[in-house]
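Hey everyone, long-time lurker, first post.

I ran two proteins through the pipeline my lab uses and got sequence/structure pairs for each. Pasting them in order. The first:
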Amino acid sequence: MMNMLEEAIIYATVLHQGKVRKFKSIPYILHPIEVAQILSTMTDDEEIITAGILHDIVEDTDGTLTEIEKRFGKRVAYLVSSESENKYPDESREATWKRRKEEALLILKNSQDIGVKMLWLADKLANIRSLSGMYSEMGDEMWTKLHQDDPHMQCWYYRSIAESLELSLNKTGAFKEYIKHMNFIWPGTFDSDKARYKKYREVSIDGCKLLGRGAKGEVYRYDDELVIKVFNENNTYHDVEEEIALSRKTFVLGMPTAISFGIVSVGDRYGAMYELIESDTVSTCIGRDQGQVDVYAKIMSDLAHTIHDIEVTEEDGFSDGTESLRDYVRGGVEREDEALAEKCMKLIDALPAPGTLIHGDFHTGNVFMQNGEALLIDMDRVSRGNPIIEIAGLYYFYVVLGEDDPSVIEKFMGFSYQTAQRFYSVFIKNYFGTEDSGVLQEVTDKAAFISCLRMIRKLHKKVTMSEKEQKLSELYMARVRELVEKVKTLEI
């Protein structure tokens, strides 16, 4: 009786019969067999290796996932599905290339299945071996033979795969070979160290106190001297490196930041270690004694001034934070009312070119107090922008998020919604150095306008909004209609 692998080879041979590879015109079946062989260097799991043999059946033959599941089981069918791109039969493969790759990469980035990751690595290693061989013979003429003839786009695709696989598979020979081929075709794409064995320091957060949670991960107290930021699963090593590089860059410019001294692995996620001795987030400090909220609001306003006093230009390499406001409009208001969206865009476009530094995610959960000094973390959104973007972020975190459900603030910040509102009120009084209610209301109207745009965009991220979410969206749309007529400029 045949085993699963033997049956898969026969099945794939029949379905791929008559087909040849793009280069050299060799029988296509040799590719899935090569993929299976690469997989066998990483695992002895028969289902993963079988999936390697079958990985192109759905995409390139008349075979179906239903038939694969019937013959080889759900696990094999699931693995094959992770490698099967949408075909878009009514459009050319050239026209849909980037869309297909982006959709496929999203599946890879969001998968925690080691079988999926191994299958991707084996398939792409087999492909890049072929590319590397042809490149050595044809040079840049090779790109004209592909559906995507832009070598920069091809580099983006293969680099993105490596970044998604590195933490899980960087110790394998297959990964090392993959990096070598990338650096041959696109010299300098990766540090040469990545092509050698490297073991990340592995740490555990079991029993560690959670200090805060944000969009990209959580921050834990690791021990008395160290804090660790654990990034979400879809963040690559490159994402962590970029955030640390931004931290160092802004520190040199004068932003008081905590500098990470090392990247570690925390299970299947990356972590960044910070030396923050006997320090707590400002959120923790306020939560411990909410009567001290005015003190910390003053500290935060002074910190904001320190940031916003740093002048930068486009040449300094920071992105334009104003783009985030346009994204809010495109992803929310524009889907409901195009005329209103146009009015919103006019207000945003009227902002002068940004010339100051902004943190981009400025709140009490991202600021640590150490020996009386406030130090920032979470630097991935540092950019150039008008300070109103930062003020609007505070209004969003401390007022808007708790309007419908005050417990959201309590979970996110660690203190009551009433304390959060007090924090915002005291912050802007200190930041602008005034008690003038007219001035403060004008600023708050601008912050509320941006915050409503942000909330509408957040609600529209859902594939289908609930009845409650739809009503909330209508409420914030009504506020935007009111504020867009009231606010004459967003500049402060």
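...and the second, right after it:
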Amino acid sequence: MMEEQQYLDWNNSFEILDKAHEEGIFVLIIGPKGTGKTSLVREYAKRKSVQLESINFSLRTRESHLVGTKNLTDGSIGFDEGILVKSMKEGNMLYLDEINAAEADVLLRLDEALDDRRQLVLKESDGEMINAKESWFVVATINPLTHVGTKELPPQLLSRFPVRLRLDYPPEEVEFEIVKKHLPNADEQSTKQGIKLANTLRQAAAVEELYYSPSLRETIAYAKLVQNETTPKDAAQIVFGNVYAQWGSIEVQKVNDIITSMYEK
């Protein structure tokens, strides 16, 4: 019997990924943190029964993480392949998470591999030429430029991903169904109340009235606390409210006022 999937494909992303995969077109998924981008990619790889290689980019990501490094074993010089080289040679699915957080030199090496030739010259290994297998498939994600640490992708790299998916926070009724995928016995009234709170905070963050936008995983955590006999208001404070303390008392008061207004009606 097939295991029930926890990912709810509410905007038909699998269909678009399928068509791109069949045609060998690389895909870019655009959306804020916590909207299920990584869950979507992992679930898709699972459905297709393909090996998934993944890397999360940051300012600390180096070329060596992608292509590899030389090593010295028993007096002989060898080469430890990086995730990019390994995925190209084996024809695996490669997931480039938060690609617009990477440094320029890292993006340059990616650009070389992702062009139509799908080749990479390994200057780190005596100029060896790596040719990607035909089955090689790449999916990348980017966060909006309002997120800390993100940069605008160079146009030539953006063009390597002609298929683009936008993944935003789902409608409230869909988010409730997502929570139920993880927590089938979630209390409907309190869970929907938590989702409404999360969306209120997201909308405030979208217009820069607040610094933080709650993710789908936070509504799931909220529902789990309520199921574990935490009062809905306390769960809202623990999951949604307390995080704002890092931005100071004014931010905390704004959120506390929202929580109080929603949970004392």
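Reply from user beta_strand_b:
Welcome! Quick read of the second one: The chain has a mean pLDDT of 91. Strands lie at 27-30, 52-56, 68-73, 76-81, 93-97, 119-122, 128-131, 137-142, 163-166.
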